[in-house]
From TrEMBL:
Protein name (database record): Carboxymuconolactone decarboxylase family protein
UniProt-listed InterPro entries: AhpD-like, AhpD_core, CMD-like
Chain ranges of the Carboxymuconolactone decarboxylase-like domain: 12-93
Signal peptide positions (record): none
Domain of life: Bacteria
Source organism per UniProt: Rhodanobacter umsongensis
Length: 159
């Protein structure tokens, strides 16, 4: 796999703005653990190898259990996730693959039971950001692991 375009170099100001949005969303009211799960799950759904690689490493560095990461594709059947995490994953999935008629009321009701309006807004921005990253990295075939040293991900010990 070879990266098609170095999008950071071609549009540095846009890159910086997307980084800023991602960082701001991560500093919202949603727990970092949920943020990692959201980033990994959306990246899996979008087939973004670069982002799956990066966010699994970040999650591991921050103490996420490997078994929970392995269970993400089957989170509905897994007993390893809290109700709040399940709501965040449902929200992630519905926003990542929007149904033809929008977000169903039952999914909205599920997330509102678990998240305040502010937290749900922060979560939505986090989902939006990872989907943007997925799309640019898939489009330009960013190579998994190629940014490990720059982002300190080599500390995960998963090379």
């Amino acid at each position: 796999m070879t990266q098609r375009i170095d999008y950071q170099q071609q549009a540095p100001e846009l890159f910086k703005k997307l980084v800023a949005i991602s960082m701001q969303a991560a500093q919202g009211g949603v727990e970092a653990t949920i943020g990692h799960l959201v980033e990994i799950r959306a990246s899996q759904m979008n087939g973004c190898a670069f982002c799956v690689d990066m966010h699994i490493k970040q999650a591991m560095i921050h103490g996420e259990r490997p078994l929970r990461i392995h269970h993400l594709p089957v989170w509905r059947e897994s007993p390893l996730f809290s109700e709040r995490e399940r709501a965040a994953l449902a929200w992630t999935e519905v926003l990542t693959q929007l149904p033809p008629h929008g977000v169903p009321d039952d999914i909205y009701a599920l997330v509102r039971e678990q998240f305040s309006e502010k937290d749900l807004t922060d979560l939505t921005y986090a989902v939006m950001a990872i989907n943007a990253w997925n799309r640019i990295n898939v489009a330009f075939t960013s190579v998994p692991g190629s940014a490990d040293k720059a982002y300190g991900l080599d500390k995960a010990g998963l090379a």
